[in-house]
Design goal:
The protein has helices spanning about 15-35, 60-70, 75-90, and strands at about 5-10, 35-45, 50-60, 95-100. The chain is of the alpha+beta class.
């Protein structure tokens, strides 16, 4: 079974260009080097004019997802990367949804 993780972050005003460049040049390459499969990235503007960043990652299973989390989000990430992230996005805006293929609905 494959899982898709949908992640949404609200970008701080005036930080969109910096965030998108950092994602492209640093965060995504690091995630990929750890084994993450990134399907796509998107932005959208909500009804209040606020800009959101959305990305999709794919995993073979929940156990693989958890193993990649352990590998990726280590002490270095927590100490060095997380503080930089929250200079550009609102921490409280983070929304993570785990999507499952619709064909599995008949098995629920």
């Amino acid at each position: 079974m494959s899982l898709v993780e949908l992640r949404e972050y609200k970008i701080r005003p005036g930080k969109a260009k910096e965030w998108l460049n950092w994602m492209k040049l640093e965060l995504l390459p690091y995630q990929l080097s750890q084994g993450m499969v990134v399907l796509e990235t998107y932005t959208y503007e909500d009804e209040y004019g606020e800009l959101w960043f959305v990305w999709l990652r794919s995993f073979e299973s929940e156990s693989q997802r958890q193993a990649l989390y352990v590998k990726t989000y280590d002490d270095w990430w927590v100490k060095e990367i997380r503080p930089k992230i929250f200079e550009m996005i609102f921490e409280e805006s983070i929304n993570v949804r785990l999507l499952k293929p619709a064909y599995l609905l008949d098995r629920v």
